[in-house]
Each structure stands twice: as C-alpha cells, then as structure tokens.
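Quick illustration, no need to memorize.
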Amino acid sequence: MFTRNLLPQLAEELQHSSAVALLGPRQSGKTTLALEAAKAIPSIYLDLESERDRAKLAQPELYLADHLDKLVILDEVHRTPALFPVLRGLIDQARRNGRRVGNYLLLGSAALDMLQQSGETLAGRIAYLELGPLNLLETGPTQRDTLWLRGGFPESLTAPSDTRSLRWWQNFIRSYLERDIPQFGPRIAADTLRRFWTMLAHHQSGMLNVTQLARNIGVDVKTAQSYVDLLCDLLLVRRLPPWHANIGKRLVKTPKVYVRDSGLLHALLDIETKETLLSHMVLGASWEGFCIENLLQCAPANVQGYFYRTSGGAEIDLLLVWPGGDIWAIEIKRSLTPKVERGFHAACDDLLPVRKLVVYPGQETFPLGHDIIATPLFDLCRELAEQPNPPQ
C-alpha cells in the first residue's frame, strides 16, 4: 500500500469545495485514493461502469437528495454526463439554504470530457486535481529502477515479475485501444492508433513533428493532430511546451513529446527487463522522460514546466518557472559523472536562472562549478514537494 502525496490536498479540497474532480489515467489509483480520503467522513461510492450502480441513478435527483449529508463518490462519471446539471442544482439549493452539503467527488479517466462537462455546468463550484501514476517520493528511492522500468501504475509496479508487469501493460494498452478510447472520441481503428502511439514512443523526448507522423501513418495532418490531442487529453502523452521570452534569440517554438509513464513507454517498445532497456536506443530519452514526469508531479501546482532551445544550440531539458518569475534550469544526465555541455551554459546566460541543477542517477549531491549542482532525482523531488510556495 502506497501513501499518495495528493491525499492531504484532496482532503483539504473536500472540506472547502462543493465538488472535486479527481482526474487521472485509468488504473492510476484514483479509486483507492478517493476511498482513503473518505474513511474519516460518511460517504457512499458509486461505480458508474456498474449497471447496478447506474440503475440507482435512474432518478438522480431523488437518489442524491437522500444522501445530502454524505460525500458522494462518483467513479467514471464521464459515463453519465446528464448528472452534471443535477449536481449543479443540488449544490445551488444547498447554498441557498445556507448549508454546505451535497459534497461530491468525481473521478474521471480523462481530462477532456470532465473539463468540458463540469466546466460548463459546475463553474465556480468545483476544484480540479490530477493524480498521476506513483512517483519516486511515494515509492521511495530504493524502488527507483523498478519504477523506471515498470512505470508508476500500481498493478504494474507490484507485479511478481517483469514478465507479468509487461503482460499487464499489454492488456492495459489493448483495453484503452478497444474500449476506453472509443468512449472519448470518434471511432479510430485500434491498429492505426496503436501504430501511432508506438511511433510516439520511438520519438520519445523529440520535437513533435505532426506532419512527419501523419506521413508515416498514412493519414492527413489534421487527423494525426487529433490523435495527439486525444492521447494528451487522456493524460497518457505530454507535450512539453517551449519557453518563450523576448531575449533577442531565435527560439524553437515546437513542443517536445513524451509518453508520460515510463512503463507504458517500455511496453509500447516491447522492453521487458532492465537489461533490454540498457541496450535500447530509447535509454537516454526514457530516463529524461522519467525524470521530467517525477519532477513535474512533485513540484507545486503553480509551477510550470518548459524546455528551452535556440537555433544557436543553447538548450535546457527542463525549466521550472515559478509564479514570481524565478526560473530553475534542470539538465538531465544518465551518467554517474555528469558533464554539462556548452549549450546549457549558453542557455543559462540567456535566462539567468536562480538555480542550475543537473539530475543524475547517483546518490550524492555535489557542485560542478559555475553554480551548477549535481543532485539525485529523489532529492530534488523531495525539495520540490517541500515548497508549497515559490522560493524567495
């Protein structure tokens, strides 16, 4: 059993918000976290993928009105979009009566439907939280290599062997392609989308070239863009945006693309063991994506992530930009003796970051010169998690 770092924030939101949407990929642990948060308060749980539970909501106003004194957890709520106006009415009625009842926790496997539906009907009444797969702070540093290989989805991470973990991922991918994705968008041939998804995995940490992807898969650019959008909305792929600033440089303006979970990345590439990973051409890109996902998960929600690249070769793998404007420049190296290239120094001269860091797979923190610090991934994740506010 893992303790999720999001638990205190979820508990706080449930105390102050009439409705909370907890978004994350299927099987990332949303239900477990919701039930953990509900232990201390009267609650009921409805799985809207269950016909039995959906039948209880045949007349939702009557059913939910009988449970105004409880936290109502609605799992896979995108399956019943007609509920959103009902929830709005119950929340508004409670407000008019001067009571803060009708507390709802909505669980969804995608960002797009939940944001569209709840945004239209529950504006000003709902808080949003995103739960990703397990991160390094939640598993502990001794699990780093297993977490990197298998990914952070609990059933994959805790599988009895690497073979069983890969088998779980194969079933996960098939389920998404054949059952889940058709719920959220136009009908897409499973084989076509799987080939597209695998191409993204081969292109891990590369610049997103939708035109080239469309050409390789034999579809038009608009269709290929819709595939990328869908996988991003399902919280399975990340477009890391480039940093833009008026600094008199020619900046790269195309986002980089990552399969967000390293276990999913490896499953798409049929990588089963660490030995196979270490000899695979995706090794460096996989480590980079793994570090970026962990750092963004552990950083405060008001911190934004970017990369930086100029046409002249200045480059930083990850910029963390704080609300006050401070920038942390982070380079990611898969070496126990990390060295910083000229491009990182040039980029730091452009941006003047307040912190210059190199994340590497070692165990010690040490200076590299020029105010650059080499730090283990776990230590930087912990430092970010301990900063609820922007650093001064």
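The longest helix spans residues 162-184.
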